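Shipment paperwork, digital attachment
Item: protein structure file
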Amino acid sequence: MGEPRPAVETALRALRARDRSVFELESRLQQRGVGTTEQRETLELLARLGYVDDERFARSRAESLARRNCGDEMIRADLESRGVAAGRIDAALAGLEPERERAERIVASRGSSAKTARFLAARGFSQDAVETVVAPEEAEAVD
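Attachment content:
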């Protein structure tokens, strides 16, 4: 077997830091001047070897963002920006602890206040989740 191709080396370097979506790797390869055919071949090889898997990436990224107090809307937006397909995003969100339960935990630690309601809204929690877990008069302060 010969030397690794430059496109494979570029993709592997990108994967050293963290898992990436197919779209992110395609973009990186394109920025480095790698042709479409070589991009496709590189990504197919890395997928066969298990280095690239958008389903795994979406699940892992969603879990990571949920641990950092992100709501479903913020998680969805992040995954969409990374080129993950809608079906994979839906599956990743479905695998998380329900958004309302995550919001309840945040309220338990920060208190039920207008400030907490604004925090939840800014972190991508749905209005329904905010209204459910924060006192109604506090949740109205977000509108």
